[in-house]
Amino acid sequence: MDLFTIQLNPRNADAFTNRGYAYNQLGQHQRAIEDYDEAIRLDPQYALAFFNRGYAYRQLGQHQRAIEDYDEAIQLYPQDYYAFTNRGYAYNQLGQHQRAIEDYDEAIRLNPQAPDEYYNRGNIYYQLGQHQRAIEDYDKAIRLNPQNADIYYNRGYAYKQLGQHQRAIEDYDKAIQLNPQDALAFTNRGYAYNQLGQHQRAIEDYDKAIQLNPRDADVYYNRGNIYYQLGQPQRAIEDYDKAIQLNPQYAGADGNRAVVLKQVIEELKKQR
Fold first, then answer.
1. How far is residue 108's CA from residue 2's CA, in Å, rounded to a whole number?
2. 152: alpha, beta or left, given left = phi > 0 and alpha = psi -120 to 50?
3. Contact between 100 and 88 (Cβ < 8 Å)
4. For FRET with 65, which of 150, 161, 193, 215 sits at 20 to 30 Å CA-CA?
């Protein structure tokens, strides 16, 4: 339909914008940009064309060019909270965290019922080490969207950084309930159980994490550490071996394995 419209009226900015949207959906972002270029040439006041072109640049990793388009879209239509959201994302990708926060602040002011904006702002606060502020944003995001496993996972990780391991476990419980295939949720819950001295529950979580993702060297390393704490050196060595097999440069696993082997050898000598 849009191709037919363009053939009939090559000065139809809407048709170029719609075809550009279709190209974006197909992952053909450069072709989308070419259509948005034409739409903007035909109608320089077309906020949606700037917004969509910014999104195409974002998908290509050209965040500065995306920001320039979002600037234009916002100037033309300053009530579009989603333009602030996307510009905030681009600023964050460029490491301009404060400017990203300011854009998320404005997006939330325009639409305080949008959970993603609280979630994204919370992620930036987490990156900045402001874990309590991150948790406050995750709280709001969860109230608005209680079925998003990622928000519970990230809030659990923030609680972990604050040493609140029981609260972290509660969030990982919910994340796992919503997404039982998330190996990292089991891994981090295992870590929290271990911090609370619940070693067997930690091992069970690491077992599950390995079942879901047997290529994560860190999980074998962490489980090996628990086996060592529990006085099971042979099982610890097996896990360190696996961690080293997956990551031959894993200095921690190599060092711990050497320590445990030395202790095993010394124990064998005493028994002779």
1. 35
2. alpha
3. yes
4. 150
